[in-house]
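URGENT: need a sanity check before tomorrow's submission.

F., can you look over the Casein kinase II subunit beta record below? I want to be sure the sequence and structure line up before it goes out.
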Amino acid sequence: MMEDFNSETDSDYTSYWRDWFISSRGNEYFCEIDEEYLTDRFNLTGLNTEVPYYQYALDLVTDVFDLDADDDLREQIEKSARHLYGLVHARYIVTTRGLSKMLDKYKRGDFGKCPRVMCDGHPLLPMGQHDIPNMSTVKLFCAKCEDIYNPKSSRHASIDGAYFGSSFHSILFQVYPALDPEKSVRRYEPRIFGFRVHASAALARWQDRYRSDMIERLEGAGIEVKYLEDFDFEGESEDEEDDFDPLDTRGEEVVGDTASGRMDLGN
Ligand SMILES: [Zn+2]
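Structure tokens as predicted:
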């Protein structure tokens, strides 16, 4: 991609840097930052110490780069420009305008689909585990299972997570609550000839108990939690115990007793 870029004439090199950046392979997760946002110094506070060749990099990103630099320096500035764009991107995508641009990309499925079978191809959102650069690469968040995944392509997998930040995906669902999918308790249960495998059954039981405790606490705080299953089996949702597997008849003693050798559940 750099080759294509360098083969252009000098004037093209300085012209449409953002267009080039957005359309380059591997940069599909990024949205285009508005010119007005980039040229407002307030939005760039603190980045001058974070990015080498800051002013040149900014000129390149804002399409006013005009420097007769040798290839080495140009490459350095190009690298800085990408870093600067990423850092500004993390700030931009939590603004009203940035959120709506990322929402369009989310709806188009630009970030891929959740690989988990039970999520039925739910669309993903890019996110960082850190807000500081060079700590971790970008991950993909599924709002349905509320878990995170590595990007499939190595081009995406090498992008710095700080270019998206650790709050963006949560802010998106706060601003557009209708997009937050209904949560489901549906999960895969390993079975051998129809019988639940012991350790996973014990873990599932513990998770179910933990979940119902949490729901109780939330209800105490006046927050209502509904799972998809509450709608599907309306008659049974009154009694939590009835939702559990009928094979679970031995109760909790199993956890500390026969199961303890196989699995420590911390009880
Ligand atoms: Zn998922």
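My own read: The chain has a mean pLDDT of 83. DSSP finds twelve helices and five strands in the chain. If you see anything odd, call me.
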